[in-house]
Amino acid sequence: MTYPKRLIEVDLPIKRISAHARREKSIRHGHISTLHIWWARRPLAACRAVICAALWPDPADPDCPVAFKVVAEKLMREWTDHEHQELLSPESRPHFEKIRQHPVHPVNPVQLRTLLLDFIADFANWDNSTVREYLETSRALTAYAHRSLTEPGFNPTAAEIEQSIRNPQSTIRNWPKPLVVDPFCGGGSIPLEALRVGADAFASDLNPIPVLLNKVVLEYIPKYGQRLADEVRKWGNWIKHEAEKELAEFYPKDPDGATPIAYLWARTIQCEGPGCGAEVPLIRSLWLAKKSNRSVAMQIVPRPRAKRVDFQLIVKQRGGWVDQDDLKTKIEDPKFDGTVKRGSATCPCCGYTTPVARIRDQLRAKKGGANNARLMCVVSSRSDEQGRFYRLPSNSDIKAVNGAAAELVRRKKAHRGELSLVPEEPLPPQGTLGFRVQLYGMLEWGHLFTSRQLLTLTTLARVVRAVGAQLHAGKKDQAFAEAVQASLACCVDRCVNQLSSLSKWHNGREVVDGVFARQALPMLWDFADIQPFGENAFWNGAVGWVVSVMERQAPSHTGTVEPASAAAHPLPDDSAMAFVTDPPYYDAVPYADLSDFFYVWLKRMLPDSLSGPFASQLSPKVEECIVDEVKGKDRAYFEKMMKKAMVEGRRVLSPDGVGVVVFAHKSTGGWEAQLQAMVDAGWVMTGSWPIDTELGNRLRAMDSAALASSVHLVCRPRENPDGSVRTEEVGDWRDVLAELPRRIHDWMPRLADEGVVGADAIFACLGPALEIFSRYSRVEKASGDAVTLKEYLEQVWAAVAKEALTMIFSGADATGFEEDARLTAMWLWTLKTDDQRSEVGGQESEEESGDEEGNSKKGGAGGFVLEYDAARKIAQGLGAHLEDLCSLVEVSGETARLLPVAERAGHLFGKSEGKAASVRRRREPQMDLFKALQADDDKQASFGDTKVESVGKTVLDRVHQSMILFAASRGEALKRFLVEDGAGNDQRFWRLAQALSALYPISTDEKRWVDGVLARKKGLGF
């Protein structure tokens, strides 16, 4: 039996969808990401677009049901009305205007496809996600798509169609809905969007926290809506009142009536310098506020005799830095570096540097040292003034902290219950992915908090349980009581993320950054502590964020949420119409271990009806699909579990259903394993679409080509008519190889039109390329030997490389260039993204910089870095070999580096000075190179008034030589090189230079140098 293609198998407006997904990253109010921390969330824009395109058939497909085409045309014509058209984007309006001008003519099926794709692109906009017209249209399309696809005899009359659309309450809403399944539901983006567009959703996860979050989003909010929001707001105010009564003495106001909003602390060690023994606060930076119009900092005042340091607050004014308390006292040469650098601490009193090993030993004895930290500064706000105010701590601040510690001890002694008052559950073993705090003596989850923080959080947890007891005591609506208590627990967890000794003070925004700026728990020397109560304090904000989600996200019906392993799914065979999921990627995120940060608090707050999944000491990890060597889970384990999950996905999917698997792993090995799991599980790949969904902290690609996008692999079950996996269809290797280049040739220009280039385009080609291979259960060579997927993927890379070169050189014959030029062009193209954010060695973001001990990856030596296997595949596809290009490429371990032009000076000019420049590149690469070019043994300019001794053998060498001459300001030498030596007479020289200009990242010296050479072309008569 044949099934019509879905829209996602034919086309997708990925450029517009990506723009909406990128914009969504900066939207917070009402977004489900603000309900609770979860890692590597999918943007709602991408999920909404992908699900619509996966559920709706392509109207231009010969097998598309007539009923769907009739309804789709009718609904799209409604968007030509003036009222509807105002909701369309400028990109979409011309297409709708075109059919508006011909109201009686049937819409061409290809035109109708375009209109549906325009609608999907506009619906992906966050602003349109709750607009009634978009919701009603999408739900009607989903309903008619499902009925017309699953009921062959479904053929409604025009009157019936009109009635169903005009009165959806009594017709469409009651029709069977297609089921969308997500077995790795995580933060709930995919199932939420399935509900929004009119499908049913089944969300499951092994981890209890995603199960809880999805229950709130898919069950509680759709069922109770505004009633739940009002109740959470009401009880949130009650909790604040009750908790504040108990804790007010531990958070005293300032003498002038200002309210402290944050306390800035530093862990301390004792200086081990000879005869010193001073207390050394461990501080990263002395900046408090670092803005263009506002600068505040601390200064350390050593007190050697007292064996301690004091602090002074300084502010910047027009005349320079002054003492905050005495604006007449100028501060000369203020210092802003802290006491810690790469894990070692320098004593301000004696100058002795204590190494990191001894810092660890001292902090280990103090269980991390949070409760022995030094209070450095208090940040306050005033109701009558805007901005932040900084002051040094007072005696009342210290008294409050000590009083909180004593009160916590008293409460711990008085506590009775199955669970300890303070989380004593153990942290994961030392060496666990993403964790380093165990090295400093933090071995229990409670060790990550100060005593006052623990007092506050245990009070909030107890009061939330008290709310639940009051609600359940009424015995009127136990399910509603459960929903309220679970939602309030989410509010407390927002505080947990801020009330920790791993929270940072952000001096740019002057706020406390929560623990999870990235998916790890690194060590933090100095930390910030929020004041949770007060008129504009954090608790109010926490409740406000949770309520705003409830008020904005209100699907028309509820979904289903269950705890389950993706490798053993609870749904029966053939029960879903769409299998859409974003699985874990090897060791990218240690979900289970990180989630225990919240798990230990949730189990102390949730009602008994939800305590089942939280009954164990910590979240389940035995079946977690991850690479974690500490737990004995290697790549083979991950790949085995992923294959099981893909087998289960194919099992629960209907034979006419569609699967979409989101994948964004940066290594070729990871891709090969994922694709192998899907092929072995019985999937046929039918498409792949890169959508810019990454949040910046999901993929860390300092040493490889990073995907700017997540690739959505589209697939279908490979089945016989009886529903069994097709196992006997054998493909001929020669036929497969003959079809592959044509498929890549058709696909890559389509991607380029959408702004998809580089690694994104390479991996986006895998879907259509694999459709050829995976349609067969086995592909054989003429000898009868089976072709492996790995072997086929080598051919895919070669086909992609050849097609990319024709695009890079604008149709010119790339074979006219030597292999070094072809490889360089393809290498740079692979690293390129549509906004030219390439990964250049030596750069890394703040979030990727590792923990404060200095365990981040060291900055690279410059150049352009790829994973070695990717570089090998590119070279192989171009007929080149990396080992033969040692003057161009440096291989080190699992990475390969395309050398920067400056490092090639020695090879290009045969000068020892060039080699010296290469050795000294880390200090001043450009200056060292220029000095080398400008000096010779006889003190005469090497390239100023003499000819280049040896013109490069290849076009690339000659282009690089000209770039270096330009960089060194050797204008006359460059002119002679291009004219007299003839380098510029070869048109390949200029074609390659033009291509490199387009490929080098904008911020690089190479881009500036090659553009400088190109600027000389016309003036020299070329």
What does the model show?
The protein has 1022 residues and is an alpha+beta fold. Among the domains are: 7-175, no CATH class; 635-809, no CATH class; 900-1020, no CATH class. The strands form 8 sheets. Strands 18-2-1-19-20-22-21 form a 7-stranded mixed beta sheet, with helices on both faces. The chain has a 4-stranded antiparallel beta sheet with strand order 14-13-3-17, with no helix packed on it. Helix 17 packs parallel to helix 18, helix 19 packs across helix 22 (789-808) and helix 22 (789-808) packs across helix 24. The longest helix has 40 residues, at 208-247. The model is unreliable at 695-707, 834-850, 856-860, 912-930 and 934-946 (pLDDT under 50).
Give the strand order of the largest sheet, numbering strands 1, 2, ... along the chain.
18-2-1-19-20-22-21
Number of helices: 31
Task: Tell me the Rg in angstroms.
Answer: 32 Å
Low-confidence stretches are 695-707, 834-850, 856-860, 912-930, 934-946
Name the helicity range: 40-55%
Mean pLDDT: 87
Q: How many E-type strands? A: 27
Overall form: globular
Computed structural class: alpha+beta
Q: What is the first-to-last residue Cα distance?
A: 63 Å
Quick description:
By secondary structure, the protein is an alpha+beta fold.
Topology (SSEs and partners):
Elements: H1 14-24, H2 44-55, H3 66-78, H4 82-85, H5 93-100, H6 109-123, H7 132-150, H8 158-166, E1 179-182, H9 189-196, E2 200-205, H10 208-247, E3 259-266, E4 268-270, E5 279-281, E6 287-291, E7 294-303, E8 308-317, E9 320-323, E10 340-341, E11 344-346, E12 353-354, H11 356-365, E13 374-382, E14 385-391, H12 395-414, H13 451-473, H14 478-498, E15 504-506, E16 511-513, E17 526-530, H15 538-552, E18 560-563, E19 576-581, H16 591-602, H17 635-652, E20 653-663, H18 668-680, E21 683-691, E22 710-717, E23 730-732, H19 733-753, H20 758-764, H21 766-774, E24 778-780, H22 789-808, H23 819-831, E25 864-867, H24 868-877, E26 889-892, E27 895-898, H25 905-909, H26 912-919, H27 925-934, H28 955-967, H29 971-978, H30 987-999, H31 1005-1015
Parallel strand pairs: 1-2, 1-19, 2-18, 19-20, 23-24
Antiparallel strand pairs: 3-13, 3-17, 4-5, 6-7, 7-8, 8-9, 10-11, 11-12, 13-14, 15-16, 20-22, 21-22, 25-27, 26-27
Helix pairs in contact: 1-2, 2-6, 2-9, 3-6, 3-7, 10-13, 10-14, 10-15, 12-13, 13-14, 14-15, 14-16, 17-18, 19-21, 19-22, 20-23, 22-23, 22-24, 23-30, 26-27, 28-30, 28-31, 30-31
